[in-house]
TrEMBL record:
Key words of the record: Cell inner membrane, Cell membrane, Cytochrome c-type biogenesis, Membrane, Transmembrane, Transmembrane helix, Transport
Family: Belongs to the CcmD/CycX/HelD family.
Protein name according to UniProt: Heme exporter protein D
Biological source species: Ancylobacter crimeensis
NCBIfam families: cytochro_ccmD
Gene encoding the protein: ccmD
Record-annotated membrane-spanning stretches: 6-29
Subcellular location: Cell inner membrane
Membrane association type: Single-pass membrane protein
Role of this protein: Required for the export of heme to the periplasm for the biogenesis of c-type cytochromes.
Keyword Transmembrane helix in record: yes
Predominant subcellular localization, coarse grouping: membrane
Lineage of producing organism: Bacteria, Pseudomonadati, Pseudomonadota, Alphaproteobacteria, Hyphomicrobiales
Length: 57
């Protein structure tokens, strides 16, 4: 038999799992959007600063 506050504990765990799942989904979708944006910029000829072949002082 479950304790008196089992419903609260189950709801808290379910809510936490839902929030964590939503954050993971958001990160994945945002990562795809950033990747598309970077690919579009590279296709236009924009290069990253870390891609320099010459080093300045």
């Amino acid at each position: 038999m479950l304790p008196d506050h089992a419903a609260f504990i189950i709801a808290a765990f379910a809510g936490s799992a839902l929030v964590i799942g939503a954050l993971i989904g958001w990160i994945l979708l945002d990562g795809r959007a950033v990747r598309r944006s970077l690919d579009a910029m590279e296709a236009r000829g924009v290069r990253r600063r870390s891609d320099r072949t010459e080093r300045g002082s």
